[in-house]
Amino acid sequence: MTQVPPSPSHGPVLAIRGLRTEFRSGRNWYPAVRGLDLTLNRNETLAVVGESGSGKSVTALSILRLLPEGGARIAAGNIELDGKDLLTLSERDMDRVRGDRIGMVFQEPMTALNPTMRIGDQVEEALRIHRGLDRAAARREALALLEEVKLPSAAQRMHEYPHQFSGGMRQRVVIAMALACRPQVLLADEPTTALDVTIQAQVLSLLDELKRTYGMSMMIITHNLGVVALIADRVAVMYAGQVVEEAPVRSLFAMPRHPYTEALLRATPRVDEDAGTLAPIPGQVPSIRAMPPGCAYAPRCPLRRPPCETEVPPLQADGDRLLRCWVRNNERIAA
Amino acid sequence: MSAPTVQDAGGHDGLEVLNLRKEYRSTGLFGRTRRTVRAVDGVDFHVPPGGSLGLVGESGCGKSTAARCILRLAEADSGSIRYEGLDVRAARGPALRMLRRRVQMVFQDPYSTLNPKRTIGQTLEEPLHVHGIASGRAAREAARALLGEVGLGTDAMERLPSEFSGGQRQRIGIARALILGPSLLIADEPVSALDVSVQAQILRLLDELRERRGLSFLFVSHDLGVVRHICDAVAVMYLGGIVERGPVREVFDAPLHPYTKILRAASPVPDPAARVTMMRIEGEIPSAAAPPPGCAFHARCPAAFARCSQERPLLREVVPGRAVACHLFP
Description:
The complex is a heterodimer of chains A (335) and B (330).
Chain A: E1 14-25, E2 28-40, E3 45-49, H1 56-64, E4 72-81, E5 84-85, H2 91-100, E6 102-105, H3 119-131, H4 135-148, H5 154-157, H6 167-179, E7 185-189, H7 197-214, E8 217-222, H8 225-231, E9 234-239, E10 242-248, H9 249-254, H10 259-267, H11 306-310, E11 316-318, E12 321-323, H12 326-334
Parallel strand pairs in A: 3-8, 3-9, 6-7, 7-8
Antiparallel strand pairs in A: 1-2, 1-4, 4-5, 9-10, 10-12, 11-12
Chain B: E1 15-27, E2 33-47, E3 52-56, H1 63-70, E4 78-83, E5 86-87, H2 93-102, E6 103-106, H3 110-113, H4 120-130, H5 136-149, H6 166-178, E7 184-188, H7 196-213, E8 216-221, H8 224-230, E9 233-238, E10 241-247, H9 248-253, H10 258-266, E11 316-319, E12 322-324
Parallel strand pairs in B: 3-8, 3-9, 6-7, 7-8
Antiparallel strand pairs in B: 1-2, 1-4, 4-5, 9-10, 10-12, 11-12
């Protein structure tokens, strides 16, 4: 396997600033992502965690510019990969970024695989298109990649079709294809959600290992706090289209500061803890068409005070983290 | 909580399943049997009145098939299923109707099981009509009361399933399961399609209902965390068989079977400090169409020895209240 030379530039590999992504409903546009700031540092695994409607997958689609045409638009902000704004690229240049520089792994591997093509041919095709290898070289490299993602008996199985593979093995193939171009960034949206837990553990440790060998940065999008704890270096918690708390993984779990993060942890049934600790969060995530005027979490928040319901709290630095909460940020200032 | 455990009654109370087997055959092009999948291959368990048993395992382990056999949504090939003294497999006519009142099901995706063109009121009242329990105003009253009990307003009566969120639909699914006043609820992954915050709401509701109505639960799930919070006992399945059974806390805090240990270690917990316990897990689950000889788990088992590939271990009690099917525990 060839090592990628370290990138000459410094600073974050991916920087999202003020991203606002809107969806159309009737004649109106409603924001699903509302002024998102997020950075991915080199060699880092950033987990973006949130429930349905948090905007985490819309963020991924915005980065890749794969939003449904006509129904969605990026209304503001920029997304810089190595200092270059992806939103200003032509569709052709963007096509090369996808796959070449940002590898993608989604929840359902079958959507990324061609059911009528042999596994080996699909990986080869990626290598020929994106890396310009000839047939023989592509074949050798495809086998090396499939072995690297630990596909058992890769030399034989590369001649099989996707339907002959289990879900876990398909996801390995998709990962091999994502690696084919030695991307700087691997963007994984719920990569293990459709898999059984023992297979999930295998795929997560594979991703972690590959990230290290390839010197990649990884953004993993998930709803599962257990997955976050297993693989992330840093975590951004999203709620209703915004980051509400961002922190190194250990600090976040040891001392969640945002009331939503705290509540999410208490609502997660743990296999290592007894019942009685489980606390549901009342109410539900607001609809993008009926966003509360102040803090989006205020209607469900036990700590809410008058300003929370009228003014949107800013994302402010708080020690090693960023926090979007009037009450908790003021507690710190008062203390 | 001193709820009864799985093992403490050998009588005719509650649900008793003995040596349950169910095979599926797929036929080839010319009608010949191509392969046989032993979905459930000799399973025993017991859910006492008011008890709750979790049936856990990964895809293809047979947990849902076992549940479907109890509900007679699939017909078992052999074995015995008794509920409240009634022979479930032999039940016909009035006995089967009685069984349908006593045993009800909650599904993973309530939306796919609700008729999109009928109001919630109609959906809830229908079973009362079918079973001749109530009609007209009495049926409406029963439906309204139940909506309140599952945490929905009575205005839900006139609305359609599409007007509700996932969590609300699951509340409707639970209300429909309860309308005939069952004593046993069989729930197949009832919260796995829901967001964490809503999932906890539904788990709490199920817990309250169980307490208030004295329900028994058979809870099918792949999520060990969920099972720990809702069940007092658990049976872990692998390729059609139970490999370990016992009180939920003991099994998850100190698993005995090598597969339970792996399943437990692979179940992520929201704690980065637990990362170190993430062990190397080898291999995939073999197909139930071609189960390995001997212990079904031996090919993936880090502790396997010669006997494991030759002889299938039986489920036997190794410490009081805990049973394991493994040659490491003779």
